[in-house]
Amino acid sequence: MDILIHLLVGLHIIGIAALLGGFLTQMKAMGAGTARFGPAMLHGAGTMLVTGALLVGLNEADDHHINTVKIGLKLVLLVVILALVYVKRDEETVDKASFGVVGGLTMANIFIAVLWT
What we know:
Elements (H helix, E strand, L loop, with lengths): L1 H24 L1 H6 L6 H23 L6 H20 L8 H20 L2
Helix pairs in contact: 1-3, 1-5, 3-4, 4-5
């Protein structure tokens, strides 16, 4: 079971990298007002959602302690990210505020995961 959990953690990190990488590569375009949500950002957020849910289930099944408040907060942030990226995925350009919110919430999600023990 530990191997599966570690594999899912790796996939979860790949999802985070796709989402955050998509944001960071568009920072200059965001300043110019021409940023858009790429497919990698949508797939990264989806990967994070699926692998995160599987990680919670597997850790619960393996009798590991789950901080439900932390997981709930991370889930809410991810659902907001996923909703914004999904709704605006076909738009030619995305306004700076929406794009900045996705980047900020992604970074907040990372720091919650790392710093909240």
